[in-house]
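Batch job 17 of 40 flagged for manual review because the log was empty.
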Amino acid sequence: MKMKHFFQFATFFLFLPLFAAPIALRDGWDDVKTQTLPSQFQWRSDTAGARILQVCNKETGKGGLVSFPLDLNRYAGKLVEVTALIKAVKVTKPGVGYLGIKFMLPYRSFGIAKYQSATDGLHGTFDYKKFALTVQLPKEVEMANVAFGLQDSTGEVFFRDFKIRIISPEEFQKLPFQLPEDFQCEYSPAVRNRPIARGVMTPDPRVLTAKDIRDLKLWNVTLVRWQFLSNRPGFPDEYQKTLGFLAG
């Protein structure tokens, strides 16, 4: 199996048109008050003067993203939470399940890009709702952006009250009770004697071949996380047929 199959899905996103602001974000949009935006976007204000980012797309299959880089000196190696209120007006359903309204925190580490999203496939008409995304950024992070936009859908989207914060280990790892310092897990004989599992997640099924499955056997893979396409919802017969194939 060619390993590029497993990265083809992510590599596609790496070259999506992003408009990167030159000023790094630290706390929110106040860091980029003078930032120029691409044509689909504009800054607005409410009656209280709060800033709102608006994106409008009128052409099916088109859209855009605006991306603001994070201050890596502040956020590298941290558990980061980004939040925003999002409002949608007549946003059509995207043809691909991971597009639509976009609120993301993509980052790259050791040359590999990851695309964390809070809104995959989001569409419709709704008033302001809060959306949150929590991402553990590696210490070795090379790039990290917060991205807003609308892709493969027509309509209007409004983003406001955007905030970034670092979540402390104490807040994230709240335990219902305190473990003793010398605590050790105990495993049953069944768990201790179980063979070590070695596994992968399949790539986009459209690039997976029968030879790839045979190669996994040569690699002694014992655990496979099978990925189903998110852009074909509502096909239970095909899902059951795939399960039957795997069981056979």
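Reviewer: the log was empty due to a logging misconfiguration, but the result itself is present. The radius of gyration is 22 Å. Unflagging and moving on to job 18.
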